[in-house]
Design a protein that fits this description.
With about 950 residues, the chain is α+β, with helices and mostly antiparallel strands. The chain contains 41 helices and 15 strands. The strands form 3 sheets. It has an 8-stranded antiparallel sheet with strand order 8-9-11-10-14-15-13-12, with helices on both faces. A 4-stranded mixed sheet has the order 3-2-1-4, sandwiched between helices. Helix 36 (about 735-745) runs antiparallel to helix 37.
Length: about 950
């Protein structure tokens, strides 16, 4: 019995090898195929029973990850031993085997370590003394066929000992797998010889090379997985802070120090007992999560996706708490364990560095070419900021903050042992929270002109950040259970500070020219940096995090050394940090009331500059692909419109002046004869000239001129600045035109992000849609555009059943079903002077906009513009509407009926009435 499994309780309840061996011995017959089939049938029953027992134990004790992983390996061990004996004794017995006809079966990789999840691969190797004999081939083939018949996924190799040594020397992956090789069954002397030769000929004297290769391999894996341990759908096995990182530490320890179990790392001085306890706790928890993942998914699944997180949290008995759901509490604990893995990795590598890189370059780190002065008692250790003695931080606790400031100022890496000391002594920060020197140092780190993101990240890794700012400590490793936010709150916040620094330094000027320019005009840059730090600090408290965060700001800012005026501005920015994005993305910026209401809240050009920059870094720090050209365009438009109002007040241009200015510019662009242009202008209402930009106006007028008397004209143009494709439809107006066009665009694979609906004075519809593909890019492929045009033509001519095609569309985000989103409709008659503003919040799905537009059509409502914003799984669709006579919808009964119909449309499938209404449409003969 392997010592790895000696502590497993009630092993015979998993599998009784003795009893099963007797059953296999009793099988009668001489036909090898039938014998193997019968034996496999018994083994499969035993495997099923054993797995059921292990799953029962997992449910009963959901946190015993290592025990469950060992149980799986134990079960496979017994199956392999029985199968090996049956094959060599009953199917291919040797009465007088030669020295060449010896064979040993070993477990390698994770299975060799004695750890397996329910659906892990069974990695095995057959070792022969010399060249493979016909008997070897028969036995190996028979065993493999039986394992495949058992439904196991097998990774296998057959090698002589010489081949094993040669391949292990040349391939680090094979060397790593064999490093964890464990005897399962067969010739023990052969195994001992293989183990001896591996240690003497492969392992001896190559530790430094192996360590460098494993660290390089780890870095590539991290890069492939996103290079952060705080992604909200982490890979438990391969991700940063996951099991593979723990395995890498053990592999290196085993290779360099010949340890046989992780606990022996303490004896070798690589971990303290407390650090090993953290290692063991993380290892046990991560294995438990991985085993639950496999059990829930019924396959080898290692990615903790949103739809699985809820089930795993339930199985692991996490409970809801005020302000935090069970899944958020589970993921918070997960990220704390991932952070522990990162901390332990730093400590471990520091010790290795001392032993194996004492001379020459360190593992993967650059050599320092200068020696900075004024380190205030700190010292340099081969280019890294280090401590002169073990009591250095305890003697003066403000050094816990100063260490990170100095590292940032002099562009130094902090020695891992200094980080270890900072983690150990972080509790001393409690005594200096109100120390003016400590707070000034912290503000220096936060507002650094160098790399504040790196300094704050290191401070967070050491546990100093969360102790110094306890409110920040509450959001460390806190995930947000949605598909919009890609990172935990602390990671998002620190990344946003890094983006702000890069914008200020001009590194992102091409992406954010306006933000970079206005950073030069901001009166107090530290107000902005502190606001970015605090904007999400109250998340997870069960209330409006903007309101609660403003209260935190009023309390913290004086402690940081900010003036009363600065404190008030920070608190205002935190309170209203979502205002600008909500206005830009969910309101009609051509409606002047939108701008006036926004300016009434902002009140000053300085606040406007601060709010824009905060909004930009907040959105961009959410994750890759969230920021795009369309959002930049909307925020720029809102900023410029608001800046004009705040700067000029009542002196800004009036509506008629703006319309006249646009008409002059468009006339100059087109170069038409004045009479023709004047005739076209008369056909278009004043609201049209206010709503559209000059480039869109020019394109629209060209389409009208080329259409002449045609019943339907469609134009498409890729707009790189807006990050979308402008789709313009010029057609005879009729009820329901908008929802049919919206449905057709969805059928063609497009997402509408903005729509403006106009009617000429002679009854023609002129509708402008901004369309993106499902991942937020413009429709720019000729085939896409052709498909889009054809879909609109077919929908308006009723050539296809639109409702059936919409139903057949797959979900753009299948995992969105993991989130409970109750649809809601809000009707506001104060946001616009001319229109009723309707906002609908719902789970995003295909043709949601078309369904809502159809509900508005059924309610006898005229849509004037539509604005679509998506936040992961959540969609927010806003419509500016009137009744059929052009008045607001303000009677209580109509408002209530409209809300009810919109909620029904948002929660249901595509309505059957869509098709019925299409059949009644007068546009059948239009195309």
């Amino acid at each position: 019995m392997s010592s790895r499994f000696a502590s497993l309780p009630h092993r015979r309840a998993i599998i009784d090898r003795r009893s099963l061996a007797e059953t296999l011995t009793a099988i009668e017959g001489s036909d090898r195929v039938k014998l193997r089939q019968t034996a496999t049938k018994h083994l499969k029953a035993a495997l099923t029973t054993g797995r059921a027992e292990i799953d029962r134990r997992l449910v009963e004790h959901p946190s015993r990850g290592l025990e469950i992983a060992a149980s799986q390996a134990f079960l496979i061990d017994q199956i392999l031993r029985l199968l090996y004996d049956f094959t060599t004794q009953r199917l291919y017995p040797l009465s007088n085997p030669t020295a060449a006809e010896r064979l040993t079966l070993i477990a390698v990789g994770g299975y060799g370590r004695g750890e397996m999840a329910p659906y892990s691969d069974v990695d095995i190797a057959f070792l022969t003394p010399w060249k493979e004999t016909p008997w070897h081939e028969q036995v190996v083939e028979s065993i493999l066929y039986a394992l495949w018949d058992l439904g196991l996924k097998v990774g296998q190799s057959t090698r002589s000992i010489d081949e094993m040594v040669r391949q292990a020397k040349s391939d680090v992956t094979i060397r790593t797998a064999l490093l964890e090789a464990r005897y399962v069954w067969g010739d023990e002397n052969l195994y001992e010889e293989a183990a001896r030769r591996f240690k003497a000929e492969v392992q001896s004297g190559t530790a430094r090379t192996f360590i460098a290769e494993k660290l390089a391999e780890r870095d590539l894996r991290h890069k492939r997985m996103g290079d952060t341990r705080y992604v909200v759908e982490p890979n438990v096995k391969e991700g940063k802070g996951g099991l593979r990182d723990l395995h890498a530490l053990f592999w290196i320890g085993k290779y360099a120090y010949d340890v046989q179990a992780a606990a022996e790392l303490v004896d070798k001085g690589l971990f303290s007992r407390a650090e090993y306890a953290r290692f063991h706790r993380a290892d046990t928890f991560l294995w438990a999560v991985r085993c639950h993942l496999h059990a829930v998914a019924h396959r080898a699944e290692d990615r903790l996706t949103f739809d699985l997180q809820r089930e795993v949290a339930e199985r692991m008995r996490f409970a809801d708490r005020p302000g935090k759901s069970k899944v958020e509490r589970f993921m918070h604990y997960y990220f704390l364990q991932a952070k522990a893995v990162g901390d332990l990795t730093g400590v471990f590598l520091a010790h290795l560095d001392e032993k194996f890189a004492a001379r020459g370059r360190r593992f993967g780190l650059p050599t320092l070419r200068r020696r900075p002065s004024k380190l205030n008692g700190f010292v340099l250790d081969r280019g890294r900021l280090a401590l002169p003695n073990d009591k250095f931080l305890t003697e003066k606790p403000t050094r816990l903050i100063e260490m990170f400031v100095l590292a940032d100022q002099h562009d130094l890496e902090i020695h891992p042992l200094a980080m270890r000391s900072a983690s150990r002594d972080a509790k001393l920060v409690d005594d200096i929270r109100r120390d003016p020197v400590a707070n000034a140092l912290f503000l220096d780190a936060l507002t650094s002109h160098h790399h504040p993101e790196l300094a704050l990240k290191a401070m967070n890794e050491a546990g100093v950040f969360g102790r110094f700012v306890p409110d920040f400590g509450r959001v460390v490793a806190q995930m947000q259970f949605d598909m919009y936010h890609h990172f935990t709150v602390d990671e998002h916040t620190i990344h946003a500070i890094g983006l702000l620094s890069r914008i200020e330094k001009g590194e992102l000027e091409e992406d954010h020219p306006l933000s970079h320019e206005i950073m030069k005009q901001i009166a107090s840059r530290r107000v902005l940096y502190v606001a970015v730090l605090l904007h999400d600090i109250a998340k997870g408290r069960g209330g409006d995090h903007s309101v609660l965060g403003a209260e935190v700001a009023m309390r913290l800012c004086p402690r940081f050394g900010l003036t009363p005026a600065e404190t008030e501005t920070v608190a205002w920015l935190v309170r209203w940090h979502l205002l600008m994005s909500a206005t830009a993305f969910k309101r009609d910026l051509s409606d002047f009331k939108t701008i006036l209401d926004f300016c009434e809240a902002v009140q000053s050009p300085e606040r406007l500059r601060l709010l824009l920059t905060l909004t930009v870094v907040d959105i961009r720090a959410v994750g890759p692909g969230v920021w795009n050209g369309w959002k930049r365009q909307l925020l720029t438009t809102l900023y410029e419109s608001a800046e004009e109002v705040l700067r000029l007040g009542h002196k800004q241009k009036g509506r008629s002046e703006r319309v006249a200015g646009k008409q002059e510019a468009v006339a100059a662009t087109l170069g038409w004869e004045p009479k023709l242009f004047a005739k076209t202008v008369k056909r278009l209402p004043e609201s049209y000239w206010v709503a559209e930009s000059e480039d869109v106006l020019a394109a629209n007028l060209k389409l009208i001129a080329s259409a002449d008397t045609a019943p339907l004209s469609i134009a498409t143009a890729v707009d790189r600045d807006r990050g979308a494709t402008l789709v313009t439809i010029y057609a005879a107006d009729h009820p329901g035109l908008f929802y049919r066009i919206a449905g057709a665009i969805s059928v063609a694979g497009g997402n509408i992000i903005d729509a403006r609906i106009h009617t000429t004075r002679d009854g023609m519809a002129l509708d402008n849609f901004l369309v993106q593909d499902p991942i937020g890019r413009p429709f720019d492929d000729a085939k896409q555009l052709s498909r889009l045009t054809r879909a609109i033509e077919d929908a308006l001519a009723n050539r296809t059943r639109l409702a059936d095609r919409l139903k057949a569309k797959p979900l753009p985000r299948p995992r969105a079903e993991a989130f409970d989103i109750s649809p809601a409709a809000f009707i506001d008659n104060h946001a616009s002077n001319r229109f009723t503003v309707v906002e609908v919040n719902a789970r995003d799905r295909p043709a949601l906009l078309s369904s809502l537009a159809h509900a508005l059509f059924q309610s006898k409502v005229t849509i004037h513009s539509a604005h679509v914003a998506t936040y992961g799984e959540r969609a927010v669709d806003t419509f500016y509407v009137t009744d059929l006579t052009g008045d607001k919808i303000d009677t209580a009964s109509r408002v209530k009926a409209l809300e009810r119909r919109l909620v029904e449309a948002a929660s249901g499938e595509v309505a059957e009435e869509i098709e019925a209404d299409s059949r009644k449409s007068p546009v059948r003969a239009m195309v």
